Amino acid sequence: MVDELVLLLHALLMRHRALSIENSQLMEQLRLLVCERATLLRQVRPPSCPVPFPETFDGESSRLPEFIVQTASYMLVNENRFCNDAMKVAFLISLLTGEAEEWVVPYIEMDSPILGDYRAFLDEMKQCFGWDDDEEDDDEDEEDDY
């Protein structure tokens, strides 16, 4: 009986040792996988946006060109987020405050088709807040004369 217990104890110790070795190997593999995952995440994580988030627009005419440039630049570098005109217009609307916000409310209330047309929305903003495209066209015409 004692011999059987000794053999059983010896077999258990051998099994324990084998499992301990296997456990150590698995822990090393896990450590390597965690390191590899961290390396891969650093490679696929999108870089921080090189263009700062646009400032809000309150309807001040002199700020409209700046607002349009800021928002267009931001949407360009984040084009995967702004895949259609409706998303672009929604983004612009989210940045409107004060008089500009009040201006857009009727368009939203009547679910205007302009909300799905980025160019048309910009044209309406320019018309309402005093951006005169004719001045730009005149400047270009003068440049063409040279």
UniProtKB/TrEMBL annotation:
Pfam families found in the cross-reference section: DUF4939 (PF16297)
InterPro entries according to UniProt: DUF4939
GO CC aspect terms: nucleolus; nucleoplasm
One GO process term, biological-process aspect: cellular response to lipopolysaccharide
All copies of domain DUF4939, residue ranges: 28-138
Protein name, as recorded: LDOC1 regulator of NFKB signaling
Organism in which the protein naturally occurs: Balaenoptera musculus
